[in-house]
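Field reference: sequence -> structure
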Amino acid sequence: MARRVRKKHHAELEITAFLNLIVVLVPFLLSTTVFTRLSVLDLSLPAKSSGVEQLKTNNLQLEVVIRTDALEVGDRIGGLIERVPNINNAPDTRRLGEILREVKKQFPDKAEATVLAEPNTSYEMLVRVMDAMRTTHTVEGAKVVRADLFPQISVGDAPISTKGKGS
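Structure field:
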């Protein structure tokens, strides 16, 4: 009996269609990619103050409270330094910078400050106030010089305002 021997044909791998897909897909994916720039601010929560720390009268504990109608610049121990009313429903960061420059002249080694915001404070407003607290720009001759004010900022909740409660 004669046996038939089948010849095995090896199938060739056809990748032309796949390569065509990749050639079209890669530029499309690269052109639709969104490149974003993230910036990160290092923040810390305010530390609990102890009774011994409250006794130090020469130690500045700078606080800026963001209210809906104003910024309240003060010392946790010494009390309110100045209340800065908003201009056009936005914080007056220029005036805030002036006050903080004066405070920095009195306490040049101090780098810590606390921002206390009310619950309805927008993120944009919080960042604008923090930027005004961290650095300042001054003009010296023909150059604009950047100087640090209070770069180590802690964030917390503002105390409840007693203004307008009884009326």
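Note: Confidence is low (pLDDT under 50) at residues 49-56.
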